[in-house]
Amino acid sequence: IHFYKRRSSQHQLHLILWRKVNQSSSSSRPAISIRMEAVLGIMQDKRVEVANRERVDSKIKKIIEGGPERLQFIVDFDYTLSRAHKNGEPVDCSWGVFENYPEVPGEYHEKVRMVKDKYYPVEIDVTISLEKKIPIMIEWYKEANKLLSESGVNRSWFPKMVAQSNCELRDDTILLLNRLNQANVPVLVLSAGLGDLIREIMIHFGVLHDNTSLVSNFLDFNQEGKVIGLKETEELIHMYNKSESILKRSQGDTFANRKNVVLLGDSLGDLKMADGVKDPDAVLTVGFLNKKIEESLEVYKENFDIVLVDDQSMDFPNALVSDVFKVTAAAL
Predict the structure, then answer these.
(1) Does the active-site annotation cover 78?
(2) Is 57 a catalytic residue?
(3) What is the pTM of this model?
């Protein structure tokens, strides 16, 4: 592999990696030129922050060289696949779709608001250690779970709840997920949100494809279809336990040879999502920094390979996928 740099006429950096195709039966095939043009173009954007460029370039090189056959995506949903805000206004996460539905009793809304006001500041405070934060987050999920039975929500409401919410996917998320599906690249959506609503949101936007697995907290219902709480409360998924024990519920033969991982998340806890990948070749972690940007930027840069600052799009993942897919096209 030869690795060198040059500048284009617009003074943008381009990396060209050359590798020989495996010539088991023929030596007449030419070398393939792997161009990281799309990735390098977006990395010049002010939204993209990188602490260790050499390490990131090395990971990207491995992912591109591996092609789609070695690739998998592991992604969070709320405020990762979905927007954090639009035109300065906050948008609903999966819990928000449920909790903000106007037909839910006002008393339930008030109790939910009080619980969120109590715990949410702790969730986004990067100065609190994980050891202190985890038990507090568990308390939050348990309190929210207890309130679910008071909501009066019926499972038949879900399509209408999503349609009437302001939940949206990030710009070009549909493009990204469609491209990954067309290339048979597995996507694992691992979320501490409400799995039933996430599934309905993905159906609503047409992105719940055959290549997609969803691991989340799912609701339990009585015989009339009313919500009575969460299923599998002993394995409640919160943002800090997205670990190997949870991933085992979704990992199988589909993922066995997928040693190159692109991880997308919006919290430090999301970094655990790739723990279940056995002997990975490259794990590229991409963090969406949506809130408390000045206070959190350095911590995010220390932990994520790529930090996308208040970026409500999938521009970077789409650029990476473009370069990965170019390798396959060049090999044909």
Answers:
(1) yes
(2) no
(3) 0.83
